[in-house]
Design brief:
The complex is a heterodimer of chains A (about 375) and B (about 425). By secondary structure, chain A is an alpha+beta fold. Chain A contains 12 helices and 10 strands. Chain B is built from 13 helices and 19 strands. In chain B, the strands form 4 sheets. In chain B, strands 7-2-6-8-9-11-10-16-17-15-14-12 form a 12-stranded mixed beta sheet. A 3-stranded mixed beta sheet of chain B has the order 3-4-18. Classes of the chains: A alpha+beta (about 375), B alpha+beta (about 425). Chain B: Keywords: Nucleotidyltransferase, Transferase.
Chain lengths: ~375, ~425
């Protein structure tokens, strides 16, 4: 059902952390997931053993998939939206959530989400999201007590064990279970421990290439929106010298053979070669100068230098202030067979342009300021 | 003699053919009337029975198709302005109301008189309706599949016995991808909710599969300007304020066992509303909301509907703004903003025509406008009771109360009766 880039998922942690980061994460008994918003579909890239035993899934059944797989008919849609919103705004959120185990049985958890910033990176850039999940035991809503002593905590631990074994198996779902202070503190402290472990295992940001200044990274929200678009396309920033690529889709990598980090910060001309018609290149330049869309056919070259006829559509894209922020270039290999259900190449290009416009339209200084009150 | 409540407002131009309405147009211009539509070859997106796991739904093909066609119409210059060049912002505050400055939407139009005291009015072929729209404004047909399979046909013929349902652009868009879903366009249905066509709208939300894609409905008297059945839809990649509001489930003891739908009300929002979600099937959800809407229609209560979260959550807002406006009960200051509180505005997306309003827009300002739209608490309770009664729902613990209520006089009268309808304009068939 969901497809994703397996290589990217597998490398998600090790591209930023030392190779033994997985072992370090395995040492934590708690239930938690790590997801990567820069990969299409915002997939899970790590599931802890605590999570697997709580949910009944095997690691390979969840890694590479989106966290929505644990939601079910009883999951509050508003809570789901609140999580989506926190991801969009790259902020921490604690929320009670009804999730479903592999066998279909529902269980209440306290869902603690927080952004993980890139280690050793000048930009405050979110590279992962961590979600710690603490089961919420059954109790009458009125008798929630703040438990702070060791003894209480131990008792709660015992309750939890019991809970995991017996609770909720009847498929009866209560209206709502609120997390107590104990769960909230526990989740926050586990998240803190994992974050500091990750910080210890961080390595210097990779992808630095001689002579290339990497552009400012896009927000997670924009990455996630763009990641939903299947077609091959790049975004370039006309406000930076030489209009470098600031985003390249997975489709672009499969078409050209270049990985994302090989092309970020570079001008698109690396696709050109001896057979590329300079008249067409001038036509593109003129259209961009006139802020007009254009559609051309030109000979381009893949990383392995094999040529292909590129049906290229270029269009300006405006942000929330109505200003041109990017140019989108959509590439379709002429004569390529694709799963297009009878849509013409032009319509596929325009569909991609439209989806990019919708995603970028929310981008502005003000768009991130909407906050939940709770 | 019957007295009639009307308001004057600048009508929104949804089609480039609207101006010509009223004059007899001969054909040959590729319109949506019988003459041209029956011989058309418009693309068709046919939806099959629920969740057949087909490739189109799974790949969210509808988004590519809809946005590709929309972008194509934009490049052909069919819209009155480029909506992506309109400035938009989130107003700072707890709710995150969204404001858009749109100076082009109502240029060069004179206000027209609209009757607002009847939610149901019969179809009037002499007025503008969607059969007069040109086919270039249509993106594709969206209909139930003949063989139960979800499929796309680039060029489809029309079956004379089944009037096509079409998706047309709104030439005055308030967001990217703003379209109108017009069910069974040739049947010339008036603006009126029925279960079958409401389900069609819900299917569209599901097929799009994007949290950014919302559908909306305005009844007559709640800022629908065209009395020809249509839903609106658009893409907005931020949450609407109403979608973020905490809700409180209404405990129902009877009536929802089979459908599994959950009904709640909003806890902290200027417009009172019912929220429907869940349901064992899409049809269960559609049927319950449609029953609720039909109840409002029959009681002559104007309303707006928002379909959000890919068809999983539906907001129903009974409203009384147009009626207050007609009775002169809305302050001039609010009228001057020319905000017409239809479904998008009520959901928290305010389209403002004046730069001064846009720049000064605050949360308090948005709240004040929307508060005028809402029914009072007492009236809302009354309306909710009508709906529950019509849908056969019994609120937990309300059974006995209801029996008692029949005997007692309604609501203590230290304040004027909250009913928003002055006697003279209650038109019940």
């Amino acid at each position: 059902m969901e497809t994703c880039d397996h290589r990217a998922v597998a490398d998600s942690l090790t591209s930023r952390y030392c190779d033994w980061v997985h072992d370090a994460l395995e040492d934590f008994p708690a239930a938690f997931l790590i997801t990567d918003p820069a990969i299409a579909g915002h997939p899970i890239v790590f599931a802890s053993r605590g999570f697997l035993s709580m949910s009944g899934y095997a690691s390979e059944e969840v890694v590479g998939r989106n966290g929505r797989m644990f939601q079910g008919p009883g999951t509050s849609r508003r809570s789901v939206m609140e999580i989506r919103e926190a991801i969009r705004e790259e902020r921490t959120l604690q929320i009670s959530l009804l999730n479903y185990r592999r066998d279909g049985s529902p269980h209440w958890i306290l869902f603690h989400l927080c952004p993980v910033f890139a280690p050793c990176d000048g930009h405050r850039r979110v590279v992962h999201f961590l979600s710690v999940q603490i089961p919420i035991p059954k109790r009458s809503r009125r008798s929630v007590v703040v438990t702070t002593t060791c003894r209480d905590a131990m008792r709660m631990d015992a309750d939890l064990e019991l809970d995991l074994a017996n609770d909720d198996r009847g498929f009866e779902v209560e209206e709502c279970r609120e997390a107590g202070e104990w769960e909230k503190e526990k989740a926050a402290s586990i998240a803190g421990e994992i974050l500091s472990a990750l910080a210890r295992y961080g390595k210097l940001a990779n992808g630095k290439r001689a002579g290339v200044v990497l552009p400012r990274p896009l927000s997670s929200a924009l990455n996630i929106s763009l990641g939903r678009i299947k077609q091959s396309f790049v975004l370039t920033d006309p406000h930076l010298p030489d209009m470098p690529i600031v985003y390249a889709s997975d489709g672009f990598s499969s078409l050209t053979g270049y990985s994302r980090h090989e092309v970020l910060g570079r001008n698109c001309r690396f696709l050109n070669g001896a057979g590329t018609d300079t008249k067409v290149l001038n036509q593109i330049k003129d259209s961009i100068k006139a802020e007009k869309a254009c559609a051309v056919r030109l000979l381009n070259y893949r990383k392995d230098r094999s040529p292909f006829w590129n049906l290229l559509h270029i269009s300006s894209v405006r942000n929330a202030s109505g200003k041109i922020t990017f140019y989108v270039g959509v590439q379709i290999e002429e004569g390529s067979k694709s799963n297009d259900h009878g849509l013409s190449p032009e319509m596929r290009q325009l569909g991609t342009v439209g989806q990019v416009k919708v995603a970028v339209r929310s981008m502005s200084s003000g768009a991130g300021t909407s906050r939940f009150s709770s | 003699m019957e007295s009639v409540l009307t308001i004057k407002r600048v009508p929104t131009m949804v089609s480039n053919y609207q101006e010509e309405a009223g004059q007899e147009l001969g054909c040959g211009r590729n319109c949506l009337g019988e003459c041209c539509l029956l011989v058309s070859k418009l693309p068709l997106y046919a939806i099959g029975s629920a969740a057949d796991g087909n490739e189109l739904s799974a790949g969210f093909f509808l988004n590519t198709l809809l946005l590709g066609q929309w972008e194509d119409r934009m490049s052909r210059g069919l819209f009155r302005y480029d909506v992506t060049a309109c400035e938009t912002k989130v107003i700072p505050g707890e709710h995150g109301f969204i404001a858009q400055l749109n100076e082009g939407r109502h240029l060069k139009k004179r206000p027209t008189e609209f009757r607002v005291d009847r939610v149901l009015q019969s179809f009037d072929p002499s007025k503008f309706n969607f059969t007069k729209v040109g086919q270039e404004e249509v993106l594709f047909r969206f209909e139930a599949s003949a063989d139960g399979k979800t499929q796309y046909f680039e060029r489809a013929t029309v079956d004379k016995n089944h009037s096509p349902s079409v998706l047309a652009i709104n030439v005055s868009p308030i967001e990217y991808g703003h379209v109108l879903l017009i069910p069974r366009v040739l049947d010339c249905l008036p603006q009126r909710i029925d279960p079958e066509n409401f389900l069609l709208a819900l299917h569209m939300a599901v097929e799009a599969g994007s949290p950014y894609f919302r559908l909306g409905y305005n009844s007559l008297g709640a800022f629908a300007t065209i009395n020809h059945l249509h839903f609106q839809a658009y893409y907005l990649s931020v949450p609407l304020p109403v979608e973020k509001v905490p809700t409180q489930a209404i405990p129902i003891s009877k009536g929802l066992e089979k459908s599994g739908v959950k009904i709640s009300y909003l806890l902290n929002y200027p417009v009172r509303a019912l929220v429907y979600e869940g349901g064992n099937s899409l049809k269960d959800l559609a049927d319950l909301v449609a029953t609720s809407c039909i109840c409002l229609q029959e009681n002559n209560i104007p309303f707006n509907v928002l379909i959000s979260d890919s068809g999983r959550r539906i907001f129903l807002f009974p409203q009384c703004y147009a009626e207050k406006q007609a009775l002169g009960e809305v302050s001039q200051e609010i009228l001057d903003t020319q905000v017409n509180p239809a479904v998008w505005e009520i959901s928290g997306h305010m389209v403002l025509k004046r730069k001064v309003d846009y720049e000064g827009a605050s949360e308090e300002y948005a709240w004040r406008i929307l508060a005028e739209v809402s029914l009072s608490e007492e009236r809302f309770q009354e309306v909710q009771a009508y709906i529950f009664n019509a849908a056969g729902l019994v609120e937990s613990g309300k059974q006995e109360n209801d029996a008692n209520e029949k005997k007692k006089t309604p609501i203590p009268t230290s304040q004027p009766l909250p009913t928003p309808y002055a006697e003279k304009c209650l038109v019940l068939q």
